[in-house]
Amino acid sequence: MKVSTFISLNILAAGSAFVPPAQPTVKAASKLEINQSPLNADRQARTEAEGSFQSSSSSSSSFALDGLDHNHHVNRRSAIAGSMGMMLLAPTAVSILAGNAPVANAAATTNTNAIPTWTLDNNVQMPKLALNTVGLSMAETEQAVQLAVAEGITHIDFHPGKERDGVAQYLAKQQQQQQQGGSSRPKLFLNTKIRKAPPGTSAKDAAERTRNQIDEDMKALNVTSVDMLMLRDSPDCDVMQAQWAVLEEALVSGKTRSIGVINFCEKALTCILQTAKVKPALDYYMLHVGMGRDPLGLRSFCDSKGIRTFAYGALGEPGPNDEILKSPLLTKIGRAHNNKSPEEVALRWVLQTGAAASVRPSTTFGLGMGACVEPDCGNGIAKRAKSYSWSLTDQEMAELDAMTSPNDNPTLFSTSGCPNAFVMPK
Ligand SMILES: *[C@@H]1O[C@H](CO)[C@@H](O)[C@H](O)[C@H]1NC(C)=O
Predict the structure, then answer these.
(1) Which tens digit of pLDDT belongs to each residue from 285-321?
(2) How far apart are CA 104 and CA 206, in angstroms?
(3) What CATH number did the domain enclosing 379 receive?
(4) Ligand 1 center–CA 217 separation, angstroms
């Protein structure tokens, strides 16, 4: 029954397997001091160079399965021991304890990461690498945003609720600093999501909820416009069409600068395209090595409609996949590139297929949870931010394209309206 599914997901979501230490913000602050630079002069040039493939979008995970997103979650620190999240976390927790902390080094922290952009309709510049804040607390979200901005990542992909509130906190502090004469920070590309309508909601009510949520989120963020709003699917085509019309309204009224969808399978896309006046700029879905470039034909379908692929889950979802992290092929390829780790190779593959990607800060995540705990959070973000500073050879791309495992359903986190949607493990 749906309701109990919601509850168990929320509880798991709440189950962070360890308690992050109290806000280690020192590193972030000093980085920000040093890195005022920012907007990458050669960004446009890189866009031309990198942006030739189309692809598209989607969203994140886990428990946005419930349609209620994270804002109903109870205290995530009231952890549930022995949850799946715990098992997934174990290796990373060990590496945190081992603490290969980064050495503060001004030269090394100078931000030279030029993240290329896509030019969407209305000349909206969308950075092709985003920070995925899924499952982070409000404080961790704020910290992860700081760390990401220090590394040149300004595209923030967040959920309504506590992540949104962490972004709001970052924005408020940034505004304060600027008013006090501080240097201005790069403008964020704010990318957020419409919650799923609870099962059984009528199209009219779903539209009203969507309208209300947009206003609520903008008020919480204290902004008059976001850069991207993404819609989740529904088993009910009328609901998706009515919600999409509300996103189009928001686009026209300037509340958002672009609109897209999350975890939309071909059937869901076909539904909204029947009535859409504006097509989704992107579809945000799972893509990682082992799935091939065109899982279930979704990408070629998107491409045929001019919908780009925005990918999450480069390391697997809902937890990092050991088959990727320990892959002999990824390890071998990484060695040939100045000892890149399999996780860096996995992300580079996604980007080099022409998709944009949204990344969790580190490998510390599991079903319904994420973490931004130093030093892993800053180290992980710094590594991910360098994804455009190197590339795989055609031969290596071909070898990675040919991997058939671990395979996954790109819209695993859709509703029952799409094939083989996620079911909670017993
Ligand atoms: C919201 O933003 C405005 C300026 O855009 C600012 O003056 C105001 O203080 C902000 N409100 C809050 C609650 O941060």
Answers:
(1) 999 999 999 999 999 999 999 999 999 999 999 999 9
(2) 49
(3) 3.20.20.100
(4) 14
